[in-house]
């Protein structure tokens, strides 16, 4: 069975294009990619290995690669309680480019929302609810509200 790299790239591009639309930055592909990377990395740091595996199973191959890039599965998953703490973690993951992509903390929350809404187009609602179910109550409730 041949590998379909063009198909993987096409599905990944579709995902990023939808994310750009959800972010409202339709001409800023690099920005959308940086935001996707930082939000997915932050999310995976707060999910168990089992939850991450279940979530990964439904993502396009190219997006799976973004999710797992640099992942140390032996690290225990972290816990944050509030959306602000989660947004701060996203900023840490974003690194030195955060100042280019976010002018204030509210923009980070909007970016997290756009990623969750994009994930919901590719991952079943049940799977997202199950993954988010292990998060602290405030985050779980906020993420669930964003699932269309």
Within CATH, the superfamily carries the name: Uncharacterized conserved protein DUF2267
Radius of gyration: 15 Å
- Quickly give the CATH architecture: Orthogonal Bundle
The computed structural class is mainly alpha
Mean pLDDT: 91
The CATH first-level class comes to Mainly Alpha
Q: DSSP helix count? A: 9
Strand content: under 5%
Report how far apart the termini are.
36 Å
Q: Main beta sheet, described?
A: none
The share of residues in helices is 55-70%
Shape: globular
Q: Count all strands and give the number.
A: 0
Q: Indicate how many domains the architecture comprises.
A: 1
Q: Would you write up a description of this structure?
A:
Helix content is 67%, strand content 0%. The chain starts with a helix and ends with a helix. It has nine helices and no strands. The chain has a single domain (9-145), classed as Orthogonal Bundle (Globin-like), CATH 1.10.490.110.
């Amino acid at each position: 069975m041949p590998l379909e790299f063009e198909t993987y790239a096409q599905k990944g591009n579709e995902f990023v294009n939808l994310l750009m639309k959800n972010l409202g930055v339709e001409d800023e592909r690099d920005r959308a990619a940086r935001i996707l990377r930082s939000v997915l990395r932050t999310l995976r740091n707060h999910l168990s290995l089992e939850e991450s595996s279940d979530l990964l199973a439904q993502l396009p191959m190219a997006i799976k690669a973004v999710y797992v890039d640099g992942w140390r599965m032996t690290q225990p998953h972290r816990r944050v309680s509030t959306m602000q703490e989660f947004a701060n973690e996203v900023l840490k993951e974003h690194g030195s480019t955060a100042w280019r992509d976010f002018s204030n903390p509210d923009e980070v929350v909007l970016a997290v929302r756009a990623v969750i809404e994009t994930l919901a187009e590719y991952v079943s609602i049940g799977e997202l609810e199950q993954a988010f179910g292990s998060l602290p109550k405030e985050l779980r409730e906020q993420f669930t509200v964003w699932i269309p």
